[in-house]
Write the structure tokens for this entry.
Amino acid sequence: MRFDAVAEDDPGPQWARCQEAAWPAFLAWFLSQGDAARPDYLECRRAMREHMPELVPVWQRLVDVAGGGDQVARALSLWRPSPYLSGCSQAVWQRGESFLVRNYDYHPKAFDGTVLRSRWNGTAVLGMLDCLWGLLDGCNEHGLAVALAFAGRRIVGRGFGIPLLLRYVLQCCTDVESAVATLARVPSHMSYHVMLLDRAGRHGRVTVHPDRPATWSEDGAVTNHGESIEWAEHARATRSIERLRTLQHALHDSGEDRDRFVRRFLRPPLFQVEYSRGHGTLYTAIYRPNDRSLELAWPDGSWRLPMDGFPVGSMTVTYPEESRA
Amino acid sequence: MKKKLSGLSDIRRYFHRNDTPYWFVSATPFNLLGIDEWVRRWSYVNLIDCFDGHHPRALVPPRDQDRVFESIEEITNYLLRHKQVVDGIEANGGGKAVFLFFDEETESICDELGLQVCFPKAKLRQEIDNKVVTTRIGNEAGVPSVPNTLGKVTGYESLVAMAKKAGIGTDLVVQTAFGDSGHTTFFIASEQDYAKYAEEIEAEPEVKVMKRIRCKGAALEACVTQQGTIVGPLMTELVGFEELTPYRGGWCGNEVNAEAFPLKVREQARDYTFKFGEALRKRGYRGYFEVDYLTDLDADELYLGEVNPRVTGASSMTNLAAFAHADAPLFLFHLLEFADVEFELDVQDLNRRWSDPENIDDWGQLVIKFTKDEIQHVKKAPASGIYELMPDGSLQYVRMQTHRRTAERENRAFFLRIVGEGDYFYEGADLGILVSRGRLMTEDFQLNERGRAWTRGIRALYHGEPLVKTQAEQVASRIADAGGFKML
């Protein structure tokens, strides 16, 4: 798997290259229930204007860069997209320095591996791209860091794909308080946990739902289920409960230190190898709001990507063999 | 306030200098072909690219070919929400919209896009489109329908009882309130006949039960304006010819011909249509409509068949006839009615002129469908344009053209292609429409040899190949979903 670090202030040729590479797989996902199942352009535009007006000019610019077509515009709006599940473990460490650490568990074929540092609308944002311009996790110039995890409910409703909500939060919010307000306001099409940490060390998670109000918790750890297990098969298959216990135990263990805590993400049960089943760990990300940096880590290496002095380039990663039952 | 338009040359100049974009949004440009030459800033927005990108005023947005539509309204709304169409409309500052079919959803999309819909409200149109309501309006206006009775039918016995009470015998025709009359007209002379359609008939709250007469169809288009109802010429209807359509009662063409009907019938049709138009105006309806008449071959009577409150498949006949070029196409008066300008027009004088046989040149159109009960993949299809019928019966492509006017002699015709290369043939699929000068039917209303020769010639320009089995099943299920609705 190749990871690319790409820097471009405004949408242009660099983003266009990422878009072109990711488009075929993205379109297949967009059309997985047929073109007619996805909302029309006017509906998408209405939703963007109503819920994310500040992002509309960026959306239009990206659509133009990607050729200006109807499908591109609808797909990029991420309004009522195809269902989307992912497995993740995430936690906030706050002894000494504060950082947000997360594992992203998904299928390698449905993942682009692109970290983009941009300055769209004048705000510098750094993060792991998903759905062409959305984010799986990221941080902005104000030192606000966010990451998403599927919250284990099957219900789908009228809302945006979560990666775009993360993009919106980082483009428009400066701290945890404003991020919480934004996440509570903008509808999400499925249930997700969004872990937040800001420069002042405030942290917690918002859980958004398509069918009920968002909830707030100051728990420092989260995996792929909510207060109760609604989807037992998913929770079992992704070992969600076991992973959460591991995180909670470590966070409460006075003997735990920073480095050991991060290393846990690179070992089972947090690190998962079920790649072919769609929930293998693709990377571990550590966001440090203080120096506005991202560090990507794998069992066999790591890559530091600070916002200032961002190193453009690539890194190839080999995932461990999947154990065969 | 703009200056009041006085008379035809003012009206023509008004549209030649028009600054408001007009958008005709529909599956094809067929119904209003040629209007772009009368109205400046006119655009066709279509699903099907009948001209392979060569029509200068047609916008055909790229689309997902697997998408299945179930009605023209759905196509209209799909097109209006497509980004390329939205961009085009907004870049031109909105304007006015014209449709073949639309619904209340269309109206709300037009609000959002800043488009003014050039028709009465969808709700009113829907009401008038109801065949039961049409019959009642006709009765009020003094326009008789074939002897009939209206009511709920619960079984064969109730049908017979209703007919008996109305004194219309037992050889009956039953029509439902809505739908393409080719599919919703049932001929019933016995309990066995009834059994075939019982389900459809009994599902309706009210149906029209008519005495069966020996008749032929005639069509006429008109336009309700503030100055009175303008009436076009009476056209013949081609119905059910097996060379053209797989449907027994299906419409498959029209002719404009001054002498096709006796003077008395023509005058009666004009009078009835004028009266019907005035009755529509009282109900708040304005603009274009079409009336189908039935002429009783045994009693020399003219009856109201149905009314379509819209442009129709016959509109391109009405709007490209000699009188249309001498004065203005009928549809221009519809646009005028929805333009923000006052006008003065001697409607009586115009109607008198349009009924003069001098103003009626002979034209006919054939709507050619795929008539076999099979599915094929279209490998070759003719382009739209002017064709010449050669002595050996083959057709030669003469040039690209967007309407019929330049087909000068009877051996030339304009063909508008609907089914193109890469599409599918299925029973009832529209290959295209052929428009030619001269008659297509004999004196006794059968398809004439010329009509047959042109039909054969067009079919010979197509080539289809059978599908492999798995593909056939897939395509068949899509076509079943689409239900083969009327596209034109």
In short: The domain at 147-211 of chain B is CATH 3.30.1490.20 (Dna Ligase; domain 1). The two ends of chain B are 38 Å apart (CA to CA). The CA atoms of residues 176 and 354 of chain B lie 34 Å apart.
